[in-house]
Amino acid sequence: MAMQSGDSKGLLARLRKDEAGNTLAIVAASIIPLLGLIGGGVDMSRAYLSKSRLQQACDAGALAGRRAMSDGDWDEEAQDTARNFFDTNFEAGSYGTSDLVRNFTEDDNTVTGTASLTVPTTVMQIFGNEAINIAVTCTAEMKIPNTDVMFVLDTTGSMASTNSGDTVSRIEALRNAVESFYTSLEAAKGANTRVRYGFVPYSVNVNVGSLLQRDWMVDDAFYQTREASFTGNYSTITGSWTYISGSYTSSTSNNQSSCPADTMTYSDNISVSTSTGDDGAVTTTTVTTRTTNGNDNSCTSSKGKYKVTTVKYTNYVSQKTDKTVPKYTWQYKWDSYDVSGLKGSNEDGTMAGGTITANVDDMVDYQPQPLTITWNGCIEERGTVRTTNYTSIPDSDLLYDLNIDLVPDADDDDTRWKPALPGLVFGRSVYKSGNNLYGSWGSPTSEVTSDTNYYSPSGPCPTAARRLAEIDTLSTLTEYLDSLVPTGNTYHDIGMLWGARLLSPDGIFGADNVSAPNGGSITRHLIFMTDGATEPSTSVYTPYGLETVDRRRTSASSAPSTTDLTNVVNTRLAYLCAAVKNKNITIWVVAFGTTLTSNLSSCASTGKAYQANNAAQLNDAFEEIAAQISQLRLTD
Question: Which of 435, 458, 481 represents a domain boundary (last residue)?
Fold first, then answer.
């Protein structure tokens, strides 16, 4: 039935007035736009998440690949590392994606990565958009500024041992790790960038003497030593006859009827001389020169016959020397020696080294014997104070030894160093039996008189330290590292002190350290590696003398115990670590095969302490430090 015109107008009018009808029309009209809006949001969210994770994986791969270029080569190992890190961070097929492609390349020490994939759509397929293609790029480079690196390396006796599971000793593992560090840093260095390396091997002491100017060392130094003392008595020493000139012959005849009389005669020429020592003791020397002529016969008889042996002398001259010598004993005391001869005359003003001779060797016939002592380069520290609280020192000007930057005053020996000479140093009344020491050490100013040869302590001296300098070849570095020899006990403070002195831009080497030739700024790093906690000894010769007698940094009233010395070393280490960090120097601490103790971790700059239990972990720690120093980073 045909709809009439009036009916049509009535229906439209009714729909216009019916609100339910309006809503139905609006909803029907908006379904398609809503599907596009909601579906697009879902698909785009998944695409954004996929792109974000893809970028993260690309960045991780580029960083890992660049870091793996330890020798500067983009080799297969470095490429595998980049791909493996990418795959770990983004697994193919994640979030329903497909067609994953990733690639890493290298140019001029910069690693560039690209990655792409396809994200399938769901709702958006209704509108003909079946997939979203995503591509990302990433770049990683090392950009190193002018850099000074000071290695403070524990070379104590325990470094000769081997950690569980390792096949090389600790000292060999250290050599390998430092070489790896050097290779990584050199690979990151730009053409105009200066990178310098310095070394302070330490144990009981540090070997820095050859780096010091002559004016920084004293001319006369006091040591806990011994001196021969005249007893007031004398001893006669009879010499033996020695041939001077002339001749003699010997002959034998048998079956002689008689034994001939001797015809041998001699005449003596006696010369007597005396000498008087500074102590008033007189040495008398008697030289007898004898001239012999004639026959000296000796006979043996048998059955009334004689066998005659005749020695015939013809102007035969012989000589012997007899002495009446003063008897000496040892006086053990604090005494001064002239050490200026060790300064030499190097053109650059540094200490030349050499030997001194002192009459401290064991006596022969009550006479002191000369001992030639070679200075090996280790030092005794300058003036200090006895305290356990280095934050409140009554007279801080006296704390010369812990002052990193103080330049010695030629007119004040307390501000200067002196050579460590173990051969001169002796305990008071201590003797050694087997591996044990017995007796009394004595006090700083006490004196003991005795004929006994008391204990002379060892003074282990490590390999000579090296000032900051560029190292052109790995072989040069290897040669130096091969010279490191494990010896002695662990005194962390002396290593940190001299590492700071050699690195500081303000101290005795400041003129060389304050600026770089290219005018750029310098970042400074001190890498402190140890394989053990503080381990002092009461019976070794240290930068503070024979500490059980000298007591320069412990109570003067009694000999320090091992615990006393441990506390002193640890407290001083903490003081020095704070002072170094206050100079804007980054301290990296690596505990190798030992616990990362609180005093070691607090010594390090924030986040710069590592513990390595084996050679591989030590190498990883040094690689990580090199990467951070090199400022490994992502670039646009």
Answer: 458
**For residue 427, which phi and psi values (nearest 5 degrees)?**
-75, 165
**CA pair distance 454, 451, nearest whole angstrom:** 9
Separation of alpha carbons 69 and 82, rounded Å: 10
- Residues 510 and 588 reside in one and the same domain: yes
Contacts of 107-111 spanning 24+ positions with Cβ under 8 A: 109/66, 109/69, 109/72, 109/141, 109/142, 109/187, 109/188, 110/66, 110/139, 110/140, 110/141, 110/635, 111/62, 111/65, 111/66, 111/69, 111/74, 111/82, 111/139, 111/140, 111/141
**395 part of a folded domain:** no
Alpha helices in 156-198 (DSSP H): 170-188
Residue with token string 């003074």: 459
Residue 459 has pLDDT above 50, yes or no: yes
Kindly state whether residues 163 and 110 are assigned to the same domain: no
Specify whether 333 is located in the same domain as 447.
yes
Measured CA angle at 464 (ends 475, 571), to 5 deg? 120
Per-residue pLDDT of 25-60, as tens digits, reads 545 544 555 444 455 566 778 888 889 899 999 998
Burial class (CB in 10 A: 0-12, 13-18, 19+), 58: buried
The closest alpha carbon to 218, from 30, 392, 58, 412, belongs to 412
Contact 313, 246 (CB under 8 A): yes
Domain that includes residue 351, residue range: 223-376+421-458
Taking residues 214-240, what's their average pLDDT? 95
**CB within 8 Å of 176: residues ≥ 6 apart:** 168, 615, 619
CA 391/CA 569 separation, integer angstroms: 15
- What average pLDDT does range 241-264 have in this prediction? 94
The answer to whether the beta carbons of residues 432 and 350 sit under 8 Å apart is no
Q: Is 605 exposed, middle or buried (0-12, 13-18, 19+ CB in 10 A)?
A: middle
Do 152 and 131 sit in the same domain of this protein? no
The model scores a pTM over 0.85: no
Angle at 362 between CA 537 and CA 203, to 5 degrees: 25
pLDDT confidence band for 498 (50 / 70 / 90): very high
pLDDT tens per residue, range 11-29: 555 555 555 555 555 455 4
Q: How many domains is the chain built from?
A: 3
